[in-house]
Amino acid sequence: MRKIREEERLLLTFLLQHLHLKQEDYPFNEEVDPYEGDKMGSISLGGDVSAYDGDLIQVRYIDIDQVPVVITLTKDTKGQLLDLDFWKEDFSKLLVYPSPEKLEFM
Fold first, then answer.
1. What pLDDT, on the 0 to 100 scale, is given for residue 33?
2. What is the SS3 assignment for 85?
3. Residue 41 is part of which domain span?
4. C-alpha distances in Å from residue 79, one per residue of 22, 40, 105
5. Residue 30 CB neighbour total at 10 angstroms
């Protein structure tokens, strides 16, 4: 576990705003659990991992090495944020964390 980074907080807030959802309805913890040793940027937001209930939004980002990255915000059956998942097409390390203006909506 580690403290949520400001860039992650900014991205989460932006995605929720794009969905017209309030952060009060989908709060995220100050502590997150990185997946894969923080290689691709995916983090667990504290929801119930055994109770996946779908994707809230999926966006695309092109990393600095020109490799596409799909970013998915998910929720659990209790309506809590589950994770912010990054999938880089070649499975390489995320080089530059995306800012909201670099995202493409799918």
1. 93
2. strand
3. 2-105
4. 13, 25, 22
5. 11
Task: Assign 36 a pLDDT band (cuts: 50, 70, 90).
Answer: confident
Contact 88, 62 (CB under 8 A): no
pLDDT digits 0-9 by tens, 62-100:
999 999 999 999 999 998 999 999 999 999 999 999 999
What's the CA gap between 85 and 39, in Å, rounded?
11
Number of structural domains, the chain? 1
Residue 87 C-alpha from the chain's centroid: 10
Residue carrying structure tokens 């109770």? 51
Give the pTM.
0.93
